[in-house]
Design a protein that fits this description.
Blueprint: H1 11-42, H2 45-81, H3 85-120, H4 125-140, H5 142-157, H6 161-185, H7 189-213, H8 229-238, H9 240-263, H10 268-303, H11 307-341, H12 347-360, H13 364-379, H14 383-409, H15 411-435, H16 437-440
Helix pairs in contact: 1-2, 1-6, 1-7, 1-10, 2-3, 2-4, 2-5, 2-8, 2-9, 2-10, 3-4, 3-5, 4-7, 5-6, 5-7, 5-10, 6-7, 8-14, 9-14, 10-11, 10-12, 10-13, 11-12, 11-13, 12-15, 13-14, 13-15, 14-15
Amino acid sequence: MRIQLSDHFTFKKLLLFVTPSIIMMVFVSIYSVVDGLFVSNFVGSNAVAAINLIFPLIIVLGSVGFMIGAGGSALVSKTLGEGNAEKANAYFSMLVYVTFAFGVAVAVCGQFIVAPIAKLLGAEGQVYEYCVLYGRILLAGQPFYIMQNIFQSFFVTAEKPRLGLIVTLAAGATNIILDAVLVVGFKLGLMGAALATFASEVLGGVAPVIYFLSKNNSLLRLTKTKFYGRALLKAITNGSSEFFSNVSAAVIMMLYNFQIMRIVEGDDGVAAYGAIGYIMMIFASIFMGYAVGSAPLIAYNYGADNKAELKNLFKKSFIIVAVFGVLMTVLSQALAYPAIKLFGYDGELFDMTLRGFRIYSVSFLIYGYSVFASSLFTALNNGLISAVISFSRTFIFQIAAIFIVPIFLGLDGIWSATCFAEIFSITVAFILVAVYRKKYGYA
């Protein structure tokens, strides 16, 4: 059954439509975790620490794809809702071409900045060597990584979320298989893990281009186009919250590492945070997947001025997010022990990681509301309000919590900082949602 953006959505139809996006985001997280598992078990905790130190740089540069994908899909969906398919395809094509050009520039420039940034982040000895090795390979794959990110949103806008899922599954399977072959079979260590990721990004970035260049039955197709400066600016402002969210996450990761290294001697604290971060990505990706999957529906109905369906989507989304929050919290607590065991940690490192994860994961009770609220305003083409919610949540409140809470709770304050930050961010989100409800008609 093909579900269209213009349909009326029951709970069942809404969940069916967003499920491929949720699975897609979860699987992207899982194959990142698999990288961590192979590296942790077959290379060592120094390599995990190195990945955790340099990965923020990869996130910052790759976030352009999320920004253009989220902001651009909102613009394209709204244009489709207005009944102008030709212009929607022109916008779509232009955004893809510009994003790829940016990715190439990043890949070239990135080779020169990895080493000094690794030094700046405090990497030394073997950890520094691992940072440079891993960073250079992954930065070389940035054009494909960024393209993979942008198409995660555009597959949904094209009414092909299942095809997007298939591409993601294929890319993830490639990563996992090559991890086993290169890291374990050929014993290439961290280089093998990086090459496996690089290969999966090539597949995930190139396959969608081939599909959208070919004759297809989706709403979108890559065609000849021209440069639409105003549309590009609109896509950037629409998706600025996604950009700030990813950039802020990278900065916050650096600050967490800084605070942990200040409290815990050696690399164990950073390794513990690295494992927690990997596992948290899987749970958080469920909320992100719902946001990605539902945003084009909201944008389309906003463009079509269908306020009745906007209200329907808004109400059902908040109920779904609440249920997801309870389920994710219960699951994360139940699976904490076996999940951390997968990293091969033992002794004090295992105990530290387990305690940290149990505290950290309480934030899932309310995590999804701010994510959805930010996505809601992106879909409504109000990038400013979306950015306010995202920036306050992922940057302002997080930084305050990281530096203030540990003063009173020590290392436990590091793990619980996100919980405190989410409490303040959900307050801001609810206030803004209430303020703008009449303007957009979603409640």
